[in-house]
Amino acid sequence: MAAAMPLALLVLLLLGPRGWCLAEPPRDSLREELVVTPLPSGDVAATFQFRTRWDSELQRKGVSHYRLFPKALGQLISKYSLRELHLSFTQGFWRTRYWGPPFLQAPSGAELWVWFQDTVTDVDKSWKELSNVLSGIFCASLNFIDSTNTVTPTASFKPLGLANDTDHYFLRYAVLPREVVCTENLTPWKKLLPCSSKAGLSVLLKADRLFHTSYHSQAVHIRPVCRNARCTSISWELRQTLSVVFDAFITGQGKKDWSLFRMFSRTLTEPCPLASESRVYVDITSYNQDNETLEVNPPPTTTYQDIILGTRKTYAIYDLLDTAMINNSRNLNIQLKWKRPPENGYIHYQPAQDRLQPHLLEMLIQLPANSVTKVSIQFERALLKWTEYTPDPNHGFYVSPSVLSALVPSVVAAKPVDWEESPLFNSLFPVSDGSNYFVRLYTEPLLVNLPTPDFSMPYNVICLTCTVVAVCYGSFYNLLTRTFHIEEPRTGGLAKRLANLIRRARGVPPL
Amino acid sequence: TQLIFYIFSRDGACCLPFSSCYFLTLPDKMKIKCRFQKAYRRALDHEEEALSSGSVQEAEAMLDEPQEQAEGSLTVYMISEHSSLLPQDMMSYIGPKRTAVVRGIMHREAFNIIGRRIVQVAQAMSLTEDVLAAALADHLPEDKWSAEKRRPLKSSLGYEITFSLLNPDPKSHDVHWDIEGAVRRYVQPFLNALSAAGNFSVDSQILYYAMLGVNPRFDSASSSYYLDMHNLPHVINPVESRLGSSAASLYPVLNFLLYVPELAHSPLYIQDKDGAPVATNAFHSPRWGGIMVYNVDSKTYNASVLPVRVEVDMVRVMEVFLAQLRLLFGIAQPQVPPKCLLSGPKSEGLMTWELDRLLWARSVENLATATTTLTSLAQLLGKISNIVIKDDVASEVYRAVAAVQKSAGELASGHLASAFVASQEAVTSSERAFFDPSLLHLLYFPDDQKFAIYIPLFLPMAVPILLSLVKIFLETHKSWKKPEKTD
């Protein structure tokens, strides 16, 4: 057990120059960033990036000293002679049609691709050991990566960092689509951050909110970069990224407003003292078109405009290292409120309660011209209690028809209607002005085939039980109660036997 | 085990006939025989010259160069009673490099007295019972091994040493340490001296926002915070998850943590069981590592601009860490016999005969481990006969047995270096044979399960066949009997 050591005698004579050596200037730097983007479908996407740059050569063996760069990854780079490492864990799928193009997309499951240095002699052996070690660091089952799911792509995965030559023999790529991402994978990922979920942007990384999302992707990217413009020496860059998409319904109860507290259930309290830059960017592209559309609180001091992914976007910048923005007494909670509901309209949804009330879904949509709008709902099939089934359950269950009410613009202006004098078919619905008219349409009812149990099963059970009981009990009863007597051997043909049978039935003594 | 022991007599006295064999009896009926093998010669000229110099340190310096002493051996110089090499009241001297000086006397009982003195010196510098018992701690039953004694590190092919600086409050303290220079100047020479015992690799890291798991209590008398001795075991666990297990290496890891307490809990002291603060403010845990608390000088807060810059005094820190490293390896302070002068330490912090003692203990421990592993494997095979031993596993077992025999032979003849290497090889081969995954393959077809699978299929089919066989037999028996009857 542990014991306090008096250490009264110090056996050592420490010779050698004992001057005060000032520590060298810090050779690694950390930048952290959060980008919040409202998506066209009303959801909100948040992308965290933590970038650590380490100005050091890792090739030499010997003592390595780590500060902001995590020791676990640094030891991996030097032991397995890595040039680049990209590892991502994703749950969900980025729906480009509804959400727009992503910053960085990753496949569902776990993906690992690695470029080794050209000093490695046995790449497959290093690959196998590396995937085993990574599965230990990130608590994921990456040890299932073997030659059956590893490939060497020749064209699509070029090195993303510095590279002298690209011999594809040193590249390995593997995907595990079955891998599930959960809190167990997030915790070691957070431990690699220098401020480690105690200060700065990593305070927002709470597992119970981050996994309540439609899309969750966390990744680690290590690559060598140039240290300066002339590229005389290289540094190692570690980027840890986390992208989540919050569903509007879960966070905002149908409204498109969001705030940091509603999304992450935390606010930003203090900046990370180790970071040289710590910023939050909020996409306010729709702000500039019309000053009435949305309002961001607290108002940003600076904005940033650039062409991102092909379109011009404007971002509001909140700098955490700015003491006016955030200090000991104020937390930073960024809120966004929509002043006027955007084009997507209004949705009212009331979920069903079993045996009490049905689902109700109402949507107010503005349809663009010459377009097709599809509304789809997912449902699950479930079994009822066996007494609740109708006598003809295999027919299916009916879903009531949907109602479409619309104000259709009128091609020709109409005058307002006088109730008493116009014919009855003209005055079915009240019309406020002459530019559009009201119409209500219904769809067909929906017949849904639901699973039914096998209703003949009780009958089968009764038959089987009765048979077994009858056979066994009957045999026993016969054996116990039957009396045996000796019988004369029968003589005579078939006719005589039949005649005797008839006589016995009549009660007449036999022949 | 044996030590080779040379005695030089300066005045040409004759041999000293004392017995030089003793048994170390360890608990559980384990006996190890230790023998001293002696050889005598007269001093050579340059040695005479060295021995006539003014002080022992100069004599040491002059005696250094010419000889190459074999590992595991000791050299004892006999000087006359009136020599001025040693201070007047000291009878013997233990040097840092396998040498010792003993003063002879002119007396009737001279042989006995000098012999006793030499045996005391030899035992201080070489293998004793408690060193061996500490090395074999894992193989001895629990009750014989008291909780007071601390277990040294298990013998392994190499070790990884990690120095971590824990800064739980980076807003208040901007801590800088010149760990690279400190490792180069202080740790690396020590590890180079210890390199015969295994491969060492050193790493360092700085961890921010890493707290100790225990809240220190406030002592109003000294207006400082303190950690009680009872709280110390609970300190390590919460920190260990942040330290990062070494993913890239198979060797055991020794962690040395330097903790700079946060501003709210400064200064922080560790109290021993009497309530007095420990002088070095550090503690260590056997087989894990050590923790030292570094308090920031209160004068640096005068500027009152947070964060304050803190430069760690690496000399103070490295003194503590190296002393803890020695204790973790089991290199304890020797029991110095009375009236004996112990020389000052070498600059690396490790005396050569301390290294020898460590290697002796390690060799014995390796042999014990290898034999235990092989015995367990044999017992396992005796119990479960279904296990298939592949050829490479068998060759590992043969190699392990050969290495054990070679190591025991080398130990008996006193060649320490080759005995240690052979013992390491024995441990590696025996562990490789025992933990081979192919041994687990055929464990799941025992005989009773085979019966349980086949009986429900064949028994119902067999019963009617047997009954009809019986009926046929009866009928043929009856038909044989019938011709006899009718006849």
Automatic annotation (TrEMBL), chain A:
Keyword terms of this UniProt record: Membrane, Signal, Transmembrane, Transmembrane helix
Gene Ontology cellular component terms for the protein in this record: GPI-anchor transamidase complex
Transmembrane intervals: 459-480
Signal peptide: 1-23
Matches recorded under InterPro entries: PIG-T
Protein's GO biological process: attachment of GPI anchor to protein
PANTHER family recorded: GPI TRANSAMIDASE COMPONENT PIG-T, GPI TRANSAMIDASE COMPONENT PIG-T-RELATED
Protein name, per record: Phosphatidylinositol glycan anchor biosynthesis class T
TrEMBL record, chain B:
The keyword Transmembrane helix is annotated on this UniProt entry: yes
Main location: endoplasmic reticulum
Keyword field: Endoplasmic reticulum, Glycoprotein, GPI-anchor biosynthesis, Membrane, Transmembrane, Transmembrane helix
Gene Ontology CC entries for this record: GPI-anchor transamidase complex
Pathways involved: Glycolipid biosynthesis; glycosylphosphatidylinositol-anchor biosynthesis
Membrane topology, record value: Multi-pass membrane protein
UniProt feature coiled coil, ranges: none
Assigned protein family: Belongs to the PIGS family.
Name of the protein described by the UniProt record: Phosphatidylinositol glycan anchor biosynthesis class S
